[in-house]
Amino acid sequence: MAPLLRVFCVHGYRQDERSFRERTGSLRKLLKKRAELLYVSAPLRVPSLTGTGPGQQQEEQAPAAGTRAVETEGDGRGWWFSNPEEESFDALDKVESCKGLEESLETIGKAMTELGPFDGIMGFSQGAALVSMICALGQQGDPRFQFNFAILVAGFRSRCKLHDHFYKESIILPTLHVFGETDRVIPGELSRELSTTFVNPVVLTHTGGHFVPASAAQKQVYFEFLEKFEKK
User: Fold this and answer.
1) Is 75 a catalytic residue?
2) What is the pLDDT of residue 27?
3) Which pLDDT value is given to residue 2?
4) 54: cis peptide before it, omega within 30°?
5) pLDDT in tens, 14-55
6) Which of 11, 163, 206, 210 is catalytic?
7) Residues facing 90 on adjacent strands
8) Per-residue pLDDT band at 56 (split at 50, 70, 90)
9) In the chain, where are the structural domains located?
């Protein structure tokens, strides 16, 4: 049997490594003969939720079948705040500055160095937005972020002005972009917009909402994408 692909996993806003690992249980089961998924928590602790706007993430992923919906998953962490004063995040915020991104990049860079090497990286929601930035840094030669592919689930482009430079150049890294047609947290058009940052992206849509799909309907697309990177 060929060695398993090693995939670094980046959770969504208000999640942590434990909750995201639980939420991707079906995906881990689906890929158990192909990939090993490893997780890390974001460095920023999210304050208690007091309210949500249209694009603000209250619960970053719909509950898996048979599980109870919770308002804040795990330790409640994030990768950056679009509103530094309130330490909150909204994917639709168009702002001049933000807080926490450099700290998060350092956290992921350190974890990838200590736990690596990795064949690929996967991100969900705010985590997928961060992964797109990491892909840009990797293409620019950042030694911390070297891998062969990326999977971005419910991703989007950051609206923060300080992040514009991540989207200036088309990224040639092979990517799979996954998003739901009924996602009310990150609308599908935002994920499709992000996919245009990449050269020849593979796009997988599903009929559900804001979660990482792992049913029979997606199985073949995952397998066909990953088999290009499997070690013989």
Assistant:
1) no
2) 96
3) 77
4) no
5) 999 999 999 999 999 999 999 999 999 999 999 875 444 434
6) 210
7) 56
8) very low
9) 5-43+71-227
pTM of the model: 0.89
DSSP H helical segments within the chain, as ranges? 17-23, 25-30, 101-115, 126-139, 188-195, 216-227
pLDDT of residue 48: 72
Question: Coil, strand, or helix at residue 57?
Answer: coil
- Looking at the domain 5-43+71-227, which fold is it? Rossmann fold (3.40.50)
| From 132, 183, 191, 195, active-site residue | 183
Measured in whole angstroms, the distance separating CA 73 from the mean position of its chain's CA atoms is 16
61: its two tokens? 């992923």
Q: Is 132 in the active site?
A: no
Query: Is 170 an active-site residue?
Result: no
* Polymer length in residues for the chain: 232
Question: In 3D, which of 214, 225, 223 has the Cα closest to residue 62?
Answer: 214
